[in-house]
UniProtKB/TrEMBL annotation:
InterPro entries: AB_hydrolase_1 (IPR000073). GO terms for molecular function: hydrolase activity. This is Alpha/beta hydrolase fold-1. Keywords: Hydrolase, Signal. Pfam families: Abhydrolase_6. The keyword Cell wall biogenesis/degradation does not apply. Residues 1-17 form the signal peptide. Residues 62-322 form the AB hydrolase-1 domain.
Length: 333
C-alpha cells in the first residue's frame, strides 16, 4: 500500500509539473533603459516605440499591433518618404508578455483591447487613432471595433486570424478552413480552445504532433521573407525573452478561445458623421487564412473594404509594395 501511494504520488507530481507553465522569465532590472514603458492602471507596464511625425502635428496616427511571436520591433518597410507624404505618427508596442511588456495572467481579447486604449491615453495620442493588426495580432483589432469603436479613425485587418468557433459564421465554412491546416496545427488550436489549461503540456510534449512544417503553410515568398527575418534573430529572441507560455501560447488561447461576440455582429463605427473606414486584406495565396471565411464576413459587413492580393502569401505586410498599399489605404480616407 505504501509503495502504491508513493507511485501515485510520483505520477501526480509528474502530471502537475507537466501541465503547469513555468513562471515568466524576469525582465532585467534595467528594462526601462532598454525600452520606454508606461504604467497601466493595474500596475503592469507596456513597452512601446514611437516613430514619425510628432503627435501634435501628425495627420494620421497609426497603432501597429504585432503578430504571434513578434514585437514592437516588427520588421516593416517604413520610409521617411511615406511618413512625410501622409504625415504619420506610428506607435508600436509589445503586447502583454512580449518583449519588455509585463505579462498579464488573465489576458483575453478584451484586456488586449483596453491595453491599446490605455496606452494611447497615457501617451496622449489623441481621441482617435487607426489600428493595424496582422495575422493573430488582428484579434485586438476586432476587439477595438467591438469595445472602443468611438476611439477609432480607422482599422486594418491584415490576413486576420479565423477563429473556428465563431458562432455566426457557417460551420461548413469554418470546418473547411480548419481542414486545410496541417493536423498538428489543428490539434493545437483544439487544445487551446477546449482545454487551454493543457496547452503548455501540449506544446512541450513529444508524443503527438503539435506543430507544423513551415513549408506546409507558407508560400515561396513567405519562406524567403522568413529566411530574411532569421537574419534578425535577435528580434524574435527579444520578443520571447519572458518565455513561450506568456507570449505565443497565451496569444493562441486568447485568439482561439470563446469570444463574447461574432465578427458579423459588429456595427459600423463610421455609419454616422464619423469619418473613417475599415479595411480587410486577404492574400489569395495564403495557406493559413481562409479566403472564403473573410469573404463571408465582408459580405455580412459591406462597410468593410476588402482588398484581395492575388500574388500575396501570409507575410504580405512584410513586402514593401503591399505594406505601402496598406498604409496608403489607411491614410486616404
Amino acid at each position: 500500500m505504501v509503495l502504491l501511494l508513493v507511485i501515485v504520488g510520483l505520477i501526480s507530481y509528474y502530471v502537475y509539473k507537466s501541465i503547469t507553465p513555468p513562471p515568466p522569465i524576469p525582465l532585467p532590472e534595467n528594462v526601462s533603459e532598454i525600452s520606454p514603458r508606461i504604467k497601466l492602471n493595474d500596475g503592469r507596464h507596456l513597452a512601446y516605440k514611437e516613430l514619425g511625425f510628432p503627435k501634435d502635428k501628425a495627420k494620421n496616427k497609426i497603432i501597429i499591433v504585432h503578430g504571434n511571436g513578434n514585437s514592437k520591433d516588427v520588421d516593416l518597410y517604413i520610409t521617411q518618404e511615406m511618413i512625410d507624404e501622409f504625415k504619420i505618427y506610428f506607435l508600436f508596442f509589445d503586447r502583454a508578455g512580449y518583449g519588455e511588456s509585463d505579462p498579464n495572467p488573465t489576458r483575453t481579447l478584451k484586456t488586449d483591447t483596453y491595453d491599446i486604449e490605455e496606452l494611447a491615453d497615457k501617451l496622449q495620442v489623441g481621441p482617435k487613432f487607426h489600428v493595424i493588426g496582422m495575422s493573430l495580432g488582428a484579434y485586438p483589432v476586432y476587439g477595438c471595433l467591438k469595445y472602443i469603436p468611438n476611439r477609432l479613425s480607422g482599422a486594418s485587418l491584415v490576413v486576420p486570424l479565423v477563429n473556428f468557433w465563431w458562432s455566426r459564421v457557417p460551420q461548413n465554412l469554418l470546418n473547411a478552413a480548419m481542414k486545410k491546416l496541417p493536423i498538428g496545427f489543428q490539434l493545437t488550436l483544439r487544445v487551446a480552445h477546449y482545454s487551454p489549461w493543457l496547452l503548455y503540456w501540449w506544446m512541450t510534449q513529444k508524443w503527438f504532433p503539435n506543430s507544423r512544417n513551415p513549408k506546409d503553410t507558407m508560400t515561396e515568398s513567405d519562406l524567403e521573407l522568413a529566411e530574411k527575418h532569421t537574419k534578425h534573430s535577435y528580434i524574435k529572441e527579444s520578443a520571447l525573452r519572458q518565455g513561450g507560455y506568456v507570449t505565443t501560447q497565451q496569444d493562441i488561447i486568447a485568439g482561439y478561445g470563446n469570444w463574447e461576440f461574432d465578427p458579423t455582429e459588429l456595427k459600423n463605427p463610421f455609419s454616422d458623421s464619423n469619418k473613417g473606414s475599415v479595411h480587410m486584406w486577404c492574400a489569395l495565396e495564403d495557406k493559413q487564412i481562409s479566403r472564403d471565411v473573410l469573404l463571408y464576413i465582408c459580405d455580412k459587413l459591406p462597410w468593410i473594404k476588402l482588398h484581395e492580393v492575388p500574388d500575396g502569401g501570409h507575410y504580405i505586410i512584410h513586402e514593401k509594395r503591399h505594406f505601402e498599399a496598406i498604409i496608403k489605404a489607411a491614410c486616404s480616407d
